[in-house]
Amino acid sequence: MWSSAYTTGDNGGRKKGERVGIDFALIGKNISHSLSANIHNKFYKSKELNFNYSLQECADEQIALYQMDLVRMGHYRGLNITTPYKELASTYADFSSEAVKACAGANVLVRVDLEVYAYNTDGIGAICALKSQGQISLKNKSVCICGSGPCARAIIFELLKEEVGDIVVISRNPSKAKKMIVPIVDVLGTSKAEQISIYEYGQISMIVSFCDIFINATSVDLCKANLVDANLFFQDQVVMDVNYKNSKNLLILAARENDAIAFDGKAMLYEQAAKSINIWTRALGFNLNVEAKDLLMSMVIFYN
User: What's the total number of domains in the chain?
Assistant: First the structure.
């Protein structure tokens, strides 16, 4: 069992061994629906860690930057970042991981000494969710992904590392999406560019009907918005929506009706949370080696 009296070397004048809480937070817009605080705090409680995780609504970039400054000052030891501040977080940090450089977006910040490091767990979280929920090998699979924002780019980056086959990106602005893909190719090598093609939404129906894996990395319910014909999904196709806010996600419901293996973003969320905790605790000098299943277990234990 880990000690709930854990303190850091940067103790702000506290006596050695004095009990002190360590704070983390999620920043973004319209995040009241987020499950992150519940997931994190129940896990910390299960391990008797004196950690606290909060939701911090940020109406604009100035407020978001203030929250990031609190990491640098030591008020927070780490942050999660969601829409629309991932790109801002990637430019704020002193050091960035390979994934952050490739997708120009960060969803994890951590304080190391007096500097701020940026990571992106969107991509690896999605990969783990696809493998666990989709029960599928990704190698040589054809993938269609809707969206070209930081989350979509992070997923594309990790998919290419998994040696998938072709990746079709659906974007409202194909010319902008092409520019967004350049840093990914720069990191992984120019040969990867041959695997990526970009289309606009008007061509989505043609693509849905043949891809092995379909991923919605936008904030839009594609079926509700009439952007995808629900009848095009097919048996054993893997369909993932990174969103989890809406329990009546028409995209997921339609895919399941056609016997596709379909799931929302909750599995990805748990994977991301586990990876955030591991990043933060390593910076604090120890490693819990947390897995998504550990977080699920703590949610069961502290259900009420």
Answer: 2
β-bridge mates for residue 160, sequence order: none
Interhelix angle 266-283/122-134, rounded to 10 degrees, is 130
CATH of the domain at 58: 3.40.50.10860
Is position 11 within any domain?
A: no
Give the sign of the dihedral formed by CA 181, CA 182, CA 185, CA 186. Answer: negative
Residues of the chain with pLDDT under 50: 1-19
Residue 278: name the closest of 63, 136, 88, 128 by CA.
Answer: 128
Does 257 lie in the same domain as 131? yes
Alpha carbons 92 and 74: distance in angstroms, whole number: 15
Question: Three-state DSSP class for 18?
Answer: coil
Position 205 scores a pLDDT of 82
Which position has the token pair 């819990």? 288
What residues does 168 pair with on adjacent strands?
Answer: 144, 197
- Indicate the Cα dihedral angle 253, 236, 165, 263, nearest 10°: 30
Q: What is the arrangement of strands in the sheet containing 51-57, beginning at the earlier edge strand?
A: 51-57, 22-28, 76-81, 108-112, 115-119, 95-96
- The amino acid that residue 93 corresponds to is A
Give dist(CA 104, CA 184) in Å, integer: 9
- Encode pLDDT of 196-252 as tens digits: 999 998 888 888 888 999 999 988 888 777 788 888 999 999 999 999 876 788 899
